[in-house]
Design a protein that fits this description.
Shape: elongated
Oligomer: single chain
Distance between the termini: 67 Å
Strand content: under 5%
Mean pLDDT: 91
Length: 114
């Protein structure tokens, strides 16, 4: 077994752990905003680990360019998706306001409505 295969195995295990942590966070956290945090951060890092493992296993220009495109789109879409889901949950009162430390969005909404 070569060093590259060991690194690939470790990256796959790290990715599996991050995916498991995201799933547990989605089930265990109390409200939408904390669940979104649990779903987005480990998921992006887990995908990055898997993609890096793929590049280490098959280091060709075709694979590298595909991995770069996948990671770029993931990094562009995941934060925006979480942001829009969070705003939607906030406006439909699916957020536990007692868990918020500071509610900047309420002030901005009140400012624009009244």
């Amino acid at each position: 077994m070569s060093a590259a295969e060991i690194v690939v195995g470790v990256l796959i295990l790290v990715s599996a752990f991050l995916s498991m942590a995201a799933g547990i966070g989605i089930l265990r956290f109390p409200d939408v905003l904390t669940r979104l945090h649990a779903a987005t951060k480990p998921q992006v890092f887990g995908l990055a680990c898997v993609l890096l493992a793929i590049v280490l296993q098959v280091p060709t220009w075709g694979v590298v360019s595909t991995v770069v495109v996948i990671m770029t789109f993931q990094l562009l879409t995941q934060p925006m998706t979480a942001h829009m889901l969070g705003r939607s949950a906030y406006r439909t009162d699916h957020v536990r306001r007692d868990l918020l430390i500071e509610d900047d969005l309420a002030r901005d909404i009140a400012e624009h409505e009244g």
